[in-house]
Amino acid sequence: MDTIVALATPEGRSAIAVIRLSGRDSLEIVSKLLIDENFSPKPRYASLRKIYDPETRELIDEAVVTYFKAPFSFTGEDIVEISCHGSPIVVRQILDACLKLEARMASPGEFSLRALMNGKMNLSQVEAIRDLIEAQTLAAAKQSLRQMQGELSSLLQPLKEGLLEVIVILESALEFVEDDLPEYQMDEIKTKLYEIVKQIERMSSTFKAGRLLREGLKIALVGRPNVGKSSLFNALVGYERAIVTEIAGTTRDSLHESFSINGIPIRLSDTAGLRKTDDIVESIGVQRTRKVIADADLVIFVVDCSQDLTKEDYEILSEIEDMQHLIAINKVDIKQVELVEKFNGKNVVEVSAKTAQGVDDLRRAIIKPFLSRNSAAEEKGFLVTDARHADLLIRAKKEIEKSLELLDQKASEEIVLTGLHNAMRFLGEITGETTTEDILNRIFSTFCIGK
Amino acid sequence: MFDEVFDVVVIGAGHAGCEAASACARMGVETALITINLDLIGQMSCNPAIGGIAKGHLVREIDALGGIMGRVIDRTGIQFRLLNRSRGPAVRSPRAQADRSLYRMEMRRMLEATPNLHLRQGTVVDLIVKNDRVLGVELQDTRRIGAKAVIVATGTFLNGTIHTGQKTFSAGRAGEPASLELAESLKRLGFPVGRLKTGTPPRLDGRTIDWDAFEPQPADENPVAFSFSTEKIEQPQITCYIGYTSERLHQKIRDNLHLSPLYSGRIKGIGPRYCPSIEDKVVKFADKNRHQLFLEPEGHNTNEVYLNGFSTSLPAELQQELVRMIPGLEEVKIIRPGYAIEYDFVDPRQIKPTMETIKVKGLFFAGQINGTTGYEEAACQGLIAGINAALQVKGRPAFQLRRDEAYIGVLIDDLIRNGVDEPYRIFTSRAEARLLLRHDNADRRLMPKGYELGLIGDLDWEKFNRRRDLIMKLHRVLENTRFKRSSVEYASLSQLLGCDLGDSISLAQLSQRQGVSSELIHRLLPESIKSETSLKELESALADILYKGYIENQKIAYERIHHHDNMKIPEGFDFRKIAGLSREMVERLERVRPQTFGQLRRISGLTPAAVSTVLVYLMANKSDRCVT
Ligand SMILES: Nc1nc2c(ncn2[C@@H]2O[C@H](COP(=O)(O)OP(=O)(O)OP(=O)(O)O)[C@@H](O)[C@H]2O)c(=O)[nH]1
Ligand SMILES: [Mg+2]
Questions:
Q1: pLDDT, mean of residues A32-52
Q2: CATH at residue B603
Q3: Domain A4-106, what architecture?
Q4: Atom 8 in ligand 1: which residue has the minimum CA distance?
Q5: Does the reported pTM lie above 0.90?
Q6: Is the ipTM of this complex over 0.85?
Q7: Ligand 1 pocket test: which of A236, A240, A244, A288 has the largest number of ligand atoms within 8 Å of its C-beta?
C-alpha cells in the first residue's frame, strides 16, 4: 500500500498539530524531512527533531517525532507522527513537503480503513469511525465546498475530454493496425498534452490560495509607531475597533479581527509599532508583533508620507521583504514626501485612513493574488480547496509529463499510454471514472474500424 | 434410461467445442463431442483468419495452457504476419490466414487422434436437468446421452436467422439448420436470452478478379508461429491483396438502403461495432470517400476469395452489382453471397468464472452463446469450460484466471461482470496489465498451470523449462555485462548512437536506447551464452527489462483505485442504515443498486467521503463474518 498523510488534529489554529503518515515509506519520507539518512527511531519513543523543507533545506519547525512500527500501530502499517506547532502555515509546509516526497493525501476515513483491513479494529470501534467520517462528510458538505467541487468537476471535464481524445488516437493506432486510420500527428498530440498540463498546473496552483480561502487569509499591519496602523485597521474592519491617539506607542498588544473582502475571509491583526524601547510592556508588544509577522500570509507595511522614511522604516522593510507583502503609504491627505518611487512602485498603495481615500485600492490589492486572470479556473474565481483534489491534480500532471517525455524519446504507444491512463484515473477520482468502455465507444464513433 | 453415458458431453464442434472436448479428453475423462455435421468440425464460418492484436495473445495463451488452436493454425496457416512489429513487444501479435478446409481437416484429425474423445453426429434438442443438476442431453433422433457435465458451445446456431435483402430464413450458418429446440430448452430452464447479430461478406471467384488492380500484401518472411511447440511453419505462404471501395459504390448503397434488413428494421439484434457491415460504414462515416477491403484467398486448392471488409446483408443480386463497382472487380462473379445472421445468446452474468452456469450444476456455456464474437474468444472459453468440467468430474478444485494473469481472465471477467450489449471482442486496452500480458511470455505466465492440469506433454514441458531458464540467465547476463569507456565496444557503440554513454553501460541499459536492435544486443552477448540464445528468447528477456518500471508504476496507480473493486455488496443491502451517508448519497446509491464496490465507485455524483463510508461499512461487515 502506498503511503498516506493527513492532519490528525482538527484544522485551524491550535497549540499543537499532529501530522500522521501511514504506509511502507513513512519512515523514509520523514527521514528526508529531517535530512537524516540514518534516521531509525526506536518505536514508540518521542524525539524532538528539526523539520526541514527537503528541497530548499530551510527549517520549517521543531517538532516531536514518534514512530510506530508495523504491525504495532493504529493502522497496522508503519506510522510516523509529527507533532508540530499548531500554526496552519507550519502544518501546510510539512504536508506539502510530504506530498512532494510521494506521500498521498489520505481520503476521508482512510486511516481507519487501513486499520480495519489490517485487522486492527474490532466491530465496536467501527461505529466510532463512522461518526468520524460523518463529521468529515458534514464538513465537506458545506454548501460552499460542494459548489466548488461541482465546479471543479465541470472545469476538469474539458481536460478529461482532451486527454481522452489523445488516448483514443494512440489506442486506435495500436489496436487497429489493419484498418486504414489516418496517421496521427505527433506534434498535435504533444501540443494537446502540453495544453492539458498547463491547465492542470493553473488549477493546482490555486490550491494554496484555496486553503487560504478556507482557513482565512492572515494579514498583519506593521510599521513604526504612529504611522496610522490602528487607523487603517479600523478603516478596513469598518468600525472603531482599535484605539487611535497621536501618541506614539498607543497599541501595546496585538489585536485581531475577522471580516471578508469579496467573500474571502480575512483575519487582520493590528500590531504594536516596531521600535527599540525600554518600556517593558511595549517591548513585549514588539515581540508579539514579530510572532504575528511570522505567522502571517500577508504583511501590510504601513509608512507615513507626511515625513520621509526613517532608518527604522528601512529596518522593518528588510525584515519583511522576503514575505508576501504590500506597502501602504498612509496619510496621503497630508503628503509631504513622494514615497511611491522609493519602493520602486512595487506592491504600493497610497491611502488615507482619515479620508478613506485609497482604502478600496488597498482591499483590491490584498485579494488580488487570490483572484483570477487568464485561465478558465481563474476567470470563474475558482479555487481548489480540497487538499486531496490538489494532490490528485498534481499526480495527474506528473503522469502526463512523464508521457510527454516518453513521446520525445519516441517510445511505443503502449508505454506512453500507461501514463495517460494513470492520469485519467487520477482525474477520474475527482470527477467520476472513465472506463475502458468509454474509450472504446469513442474509438468506434471516431474512426471507421473493422473489416 | 440412457443410450450412452459419458463423463462430459460437448454440444457443438466449433472453436469453443473443439477446445473443450480436447481438453476434457486429455485430462482423462470420457468425452463425447456432438455436432450437427461431423464434416464441418472446426469450420471457420466467417473470415478464414486467426489472431490479430489481442486475439493473437489469446491464441498464445490457449496454447500455453495446452489448448489446440495454435497447433492447428500453425499447420494450416497460409499467410502469417506479426502485427505491430514496429511497436513495443506487448502489443505485437501474430495473425494468420488459414486454408479453410485444411484447418477443418487438421482439427478433425487431432480430435480423432485424442484418446477418450468420441465424436457423435446429432442435433441436441433438449437438456436433461433434474434438481438443478444436468444429467445429459436428448437428440433429435430420440437418443438420450447421459453425462456428469454438459458444455453448450453452439455458436450462432441457437435460434439462428439468416437475412439477405428481404429474405429471412432459419439457419445456424449458410446451408445448415439452426438449433431451435435447444434454444427453447434453455429458455425453459429460465436463462435470460438476448439477440445479437453478425454478418459475412460475399466470397468471390478468384478467376474473375483483376489481381493487378490491387496492392499486394505479402506474408512475413520469417513467420511467427502461434504454438510454443511449433518449430517451423511448413505451409507455403500466399499473398493477400488490398483494394478500396469507391464513392460511386457508396452512392449505390445509399440509394438501396431500404433493401437492407439492417435499415428496414427487420434485424433487431445488435451487431459488433468493430466489424460493421458495408452499409453501416457508408452511413455512419459518410465523409469517408473510400473504405479499405482485403482480398483473402481461402486456401491452396480453391478459387474462393473472401472479400474482407464488405460484410453485407443486401439482396444477393444487388451484392453482385455492388462488388463490380470495386476497381479491379469489374468482371467478378460471386460464389456465395454475404448475409447477416441473428442468433440467441444467454446473458453471461449467469455464469461463473469457471464457465459453469450459476443455475444448473454441471452445465457450462462457452463461446458465442455468452455474447462474444471471434474464433479466439470462443476457443479460450471452450478451453476453460473443458478444463473445469473435467476437474468437476474428477472432484478437483476449479480453475480460473485473474485479469492480471491472462487476456483470458480479462475476457471472462468482463463477460460475467458487465454482461454484453453488443458482441464482445477482446482488445488490448481491456487489459489493465497490458504490458505484462505479452504474447511472447504467455508460456511463462501459463504453461506451469497447463502442466499442472495435465494438458502439457513432457517434451513441451522440458522445452519450456529450458527456455525459461535461459531467459532468467539472460536477465542476469544483460544486467551484468558492462562495457567500460576503455573497451573497444564502447567506442564503436558510442559512435553508432552518436552520444556519450557515461562511464560504463550495461547491455540492459543499452537495449533501452533508441535505435538499438535486438540483433545488435545479440551480437554483443558474451560468447558463453550467445550460441544457445536465439533472437526469440533474447527478445522476450529484453521485453521484461523494457517494461519492468512501467509495470510497477501502473500497478501502484491501479491498485490504489481498484483495490476493493471485487467486494460484493449483498443483495437488497440497505444503504440507509449507514450512519454517515447523506440523503442525497443514499438516493444515488438506491437508483443504481451497485452489486460490487467497483460499480459503486463509478456512480457519478458520489462524494469520496460517501464512497469511503460505504467501504468502511462493507469491510466492517465482512470482518464481522470472519470473526464469528
Ligand atoms: N492626516 C492623517 N492622519 C492620520 C492618518 N492616519 C492616522 N492619522 C493620525 O496619526 C496618528 C497615529 O495614528 P494611529 O492609528 O494611532 O497610529 P499607529 O500606527 O497605530 O500608532 P501606534 O499604535 O502608536 O504604533 C493619529 O493622530 C491619527 O489620527 C491619515 O491617513 N491622515
Ligand atoms: Mg496603533
A1: 90
A2: 1.10.150.570
A3: 2-Layer Sandwich (3.30)
A4: A228
A5: no
A6: no
A7: A244
